[in-house]
Amino acid sequence: MGGRMNIQQLRYVVATAEHGSMTAAAAALFVAQPALSRAVRQLERELDLTLFARDGRGIALTPAGETFVRRARAVLHSIATLRTTAAAAPSSAPLVIAASPTLQAALAIPILAGLREHGVTVHTRLLGGSGSPEVADLVATGRADLGLCDSAVTTDLVAVPIGRAEVRLYSPAATDLPDRVTLADLGRVPLVLPTAGSARRATLDAFFAECAITPEVAVETDERHAWLAAVTHGIASCLWHSVETPRIPLPGVVARGFDPPIHRELTALHRADDETPLPRHLLEVLRQVGGLLSG
């Protein structure tokens, strides 16, 4: 529900399929037709799918479009159910979501913001974990209702795929690198990394070792906001992944994707014996959206 797809785009696609043209869909939704058309075409580009084909004076769904619209309708139905459930939930009982500081900002907040834009307000408490194992423990012991992870974890919890995030290299603008970087390029630039001994650093060190890369460590910090600050001030580059593309370019910073692209698989964790409606309905929305993104 972040940079690659949003709920409004799903509404536009479903309405276009139901009304047979973007003009009729825009009129039914009380939006400008050019805005609806741009949103639908942008979604097609982002997902690399052709959803509609011209059919005489109107448009018709392609086979891929038929599958997408069926899934999109299910997502919109689940969001309506979640809206009703959230409205009925006691305001004194927050939904507790465990995630690393990285995923709190990169995943949890965009999810909640996307839901809020469409009338789903969830009283949420974000609980920090140093990595996926600690997040899983917080859920397993009942201290959190849901957990968000970006690395594999061995657990008896229900693990639901909810999409993936592209890993990019953020560097000072003066850094001499190609438009798309390779893993070998990581050894050519100073990096800001999590502190030695942390779970995040251990994961990155294992990744560097697997790729035969010896990183040049310029700054060590576990504070996420300091990573991009180090880049902005020209000190180092950093690896960054998020479901959202930054809406406002950072001054003096260039974001580069990898060739080939690198993604982190995202999962949500939940206790199988927890029948509480709110987390289960939110989990279903995340599962369905993840299915749309993965095709």
From TrEMBL:
Q: Which GO terms describe its cellular component?
A: protein-DNA complex
Domain of life, per UniProt, equals: Bacteria
Alphabetized Pfam families for the sequence: HTH_1, LysR_substrate
Q: Which UniProt keywords apply?
A: DNA-binding, Transcription, Transcription regulation
**UniProt entry tagged with the keyword Transport:** no
Residue ranges occupied by any HTH lysR-type domain in the UniProt entry? 5-62
Q: Which GO terms describe its molecular function?
A: DNA binding; DNA-binding transcription factor activity
Family, per entry: Belongs to the LysR transcriptional regulatory family.
State the protein's name. LysR family transcriptional regulator
Q: Which organism is it from?
A: Nocardioides simplex (Arthrobacter simplex)
